Amino acid sequence: MTGTRDDAPIMEAQGLTKTYTLSSGLLGKKRTLHAVRGLDLDLRRGDILGIVGESGCGKSTLSRMLLGLEAPTEGVVRIGGQPVEQIGRAALSRKVQPIFQDPFSSLNPRKTIESIISLPLRLHGIGDAASRRREVREMMERVGLPSRVAKGYPSQLSGGQRQRVSIARALITRPEIVICDEPTSALDVSVQSQILNMLQELRDELNLTYIVITHDLAVVEHLATEIAVMYLGRIVERAETERFFGDPQHPYSRALLKSVMTPDTSLGIPELGLGTAFPDPANPPPGCAFHPRCAKRFEGCDRIAPVPVPRAGGGHVECRLFETPEAAGLPDPAMTKER
Amino acid sequence: MTTAGHNATASEREESIARRRSAISRYLGHRSLVIGGVGLALLILIAVFAPLLTWHDPYMQDLTSRRIPPIWHGWFYDNPKAGWLHPLGTDPLGRDYFTRLVYGARISLFVGFSVVALSCVIGTTLGVLAGYFGGRIDAVISFIVTTRLSMPVVLVALAVVSIFDGSLQVVILVLGLLLWDRFAVVMRSVTLQIKSQEFVTAARAVGCSNLRIILTEIMPNVANSLIIVATIEMAVAIIYEASLSFLGLGIQPPLPSWGLMLAEARPEIFFAAWMITLPGIALFLLVLFVNLLGDGVRDITAPEGRA
């Protein structure tokens, strides 16, 4: 996967920023919510980029901007070198497609499975009725749906089957990039691995590029080729999957890795050292956004924003610990209050 | 893994068949749905086939046979005037009461359906637009709805009807232009709810236009609520028509509106109370059936709509 590194990125985001204005009633003060704050991203053909972060970190806003469903406040998203605003709604929809988290709300309950999957074809006027029918059957087979469900309704399917319908709909127009927003988190554990394996196979068959957005590191550990960790609207660490899991550098990445639950109950619920200070995107902390929860913070973290530091073997980490060699060598923080 | 999958799909299939079967039996087992549906269907049939059900003309006056009591006065009170010629008696102008009631069903139903059709179009359009687009459009439409809600329907209707003179058309137009508020409010909230579902986002992501999303993704999912609101509004419209006619500002004589019949029978209340009770019962039954039907539709669609 790293062999294609030199190619031009298939998708690229520069300085992507999205802010929302929150008004609390007629007389309330207007506040600004910083969902995504100056985010850079590049994606090469065939990559599977896992974007990991907790709820409220801007993952979903990012995916909506990458899909062209929402315009960024600042910055630009390019697909194949072309800004998305210039591509046009219809052409864009044939390049990027989403797969959603909740298979129960992602299918219109009043439409048959066949009509749901064939909608993109009908919309773009691809083929005639017979060829569309063939195409739908073929795609259903590809995603492992029995053809007899074609005339059925979503309420007759299980969660896993619904997610397969959702995937079939996304892939029917052969997009280049698929953005999966928590593709398995609403499914039974037994079905999750089936769906993940299928996504992997489909990527190889159809030459797809994925962005997999999740809060669950276990989902991306085997699927993704690269991991990006998001915190309050920024990517704080990005690295190849193996390097990331072998050597997570950012304190937040380490905490996330510790948070992965194991079946071994004797280990108990992991203590993350993150405290209870949940991040508030409407009021991001000054300096490094992570500093109120950071176990390794030191003098200046609450004033000075970190800059991305390249990681060995590609990617970057955005933490002041790594900005200066002497800072990296500091023992556990003298400035940290007792928890 | 695969065998487990097969078992799962086979049991799912049986489950879906069983679910459908239980749905049908639930429709038939739902008492208010059956009573309301059958009753309303019967009244509609009566209204449609009115000329076949009676041998009298609803407008034909016969001064020699005025105030004939209904047939049961002959049975229980030995009233010699009661007879099968006028089974429900005659009014003070000698017109057959049964005939007038049957033709009155036409007016009530016609007013009910026309008013609902008109207000449904207005209210649904506004509500869906407000819910779907939100923001400034929502603010403007919500303001219009609030303005409408602050107007007393009866007073406005009375004023308009007294200016333009009461007639069937004016009553329908006035009520239709006044009674759309519930459609707008309900459709707005239902649309908001549907809009947040991911299949709408999916439709947008494949490049559907707003119009297409509204027509093919939103509308089929709000149809249930639409039917329920329509039944409520139909009952309301029928009552309003009767009220306006009773006050002499709605349907004008000699048309046999039930409200008008109530008004015409008012002086007779101490001498021939049945002249009041019969149109009253007719009105009561019609509104009851419509409401029962609406309740039934709501009960049946609410839990299943989520699945």
What can be said about this structure in brief?
The complex is a heterodimer of chains A (339) and B (307). With 339 residues, chain A is α/β, with parallel strands linked by helices.
Description:
The complex is a heterodimer of chains A (339) and B (307). Chain A is 29% helix and 21% strand. Chain A is of the alpha/beta class and 339 residues long. Chain A folds into two domains: 2-95 and 175-328, P-loop containing nucleotide triphosphate hydrolases (Rossmann fold, 3-Layer(aba) Sandwich); 104-174, no CATH class. In chain A, β1 (11-23) and β2 (30-43) form a beta hairpin. In chain A, α4 packs across α5 (129-142) and α5 crosses α6. Chain A is globular. Mean pLDDT of chain A is 82; it is low at 1-5 and 327-339. Chain B is mainly alpha-helical. Chain B has one domain: MetI-like (MetI-like fold, Orthogonal Bundle), CATH 1.10.3720.10. Chain B is built from 13 helices and no strands. In chain B, α2 crosses α5 (97-133) and α12 (258-265) packs antiparallel against α13. The radius of gyration of chain B is 25 Å and the shape is flat. Residues 1-5 and 303-307 of chain B have low confidence and may be disordered. At the A-B interface, α3, β6, α4 and α6 of A face α1, α10 and α11 of B.
